[in-house]
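Appendix B. Raw example, untouched.
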Amino acid sequence: MSEEKIALLESIAERQLTVVPDLYEIGKEVSIYIGIPFCPTKCAYCTFPAYAIEANRGSVDGFLAGLHYEIAETGKWLKENGIQITTIYYGGGTPTSITAEQMDALYEQVHRSFPNMERIRELTVEAGRPDTITEDKIAVLKKWNVDRISINPQSFENETLHAIGRHHSVEETIEKFQLARALGMNNINMDLIIGLPGEGIIEMEHTLVETAKLLPESLTVHTLSFKRASTMTKNKEKYKVASREEVAEMMELTTEWTKQYNYEPYYLYRQKNILGNLENVGYALEGKESIYNIMIMEEVQTIIGLGCGAASKLVDPQTGKITRYANPKDPHTYNERYKHYTHEKLAKLSEIFEIKNFQS
């Protein structure tokens, strides 16, 4: 490992302890991940549980009914056993692909079910697709005290967005970011992807120029990964990507940009088949780091996954041993079996936390 990478990892470790001083002392708390498996369209590089919402309207109400049940039962278990929640993260899919009314009812269920909501350190909603963001949905986010959202351009090149299957434009990304700002959202993350098809240094420079005009509080920089089940991997001949050397240069360009605008790295992870054998890095302005992202990467506490495609990481508070438990990835199976998965998961949680006489 290079000295530069060692210095990066040391810097990240130090930053994480500044953000969460009790990082290694909150193993008896949990964080919650809530998965909404619907999107306007599925991106060509994506392998997350994400289903085009217009083609799956018939599954939405059934899914939400199951999710409400799972939240209520999990909340009951948390209250009965005096377990505090550290952070809540709504992911997917795109959690803002459902209607404002459905979002409002879901957040009400969360606040009614979970203990001590006023003590939760961070509440994030991944509003990743700009074409799902509306004024009434932002009003719902504000009503329920969501303090962090993501609006993800991935690229500021319209041709690229079209090629990867995103149906919003660059102009819409900017418009929705400004709308969120105007309505009081003051902790916004953006995701960018290095090495998207057809992009090189010039396109990356343009994306960074446009990002500088908005200056989100945090920036997650991904390097394109050819995931086995993605449309892009299955049709590789259609997608021309930059060379390893050019991807590395684009990463260096982005790193220098973050330094120029006072963003500091605070988490890092790698994936299989990632271009240039590089990594994904989360940057943030001081005080705007995502606590949930630190929790999920450091694996120091249990993450309870609720909803379709949600995976739980059950961390034994005594030994640190990790047990994984996955909900069904498709809405049809989830809708049919959510009660079974809910109670099986709660039984495993009771075992991990050494809670006796759990009745499923």
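End of appendix B.
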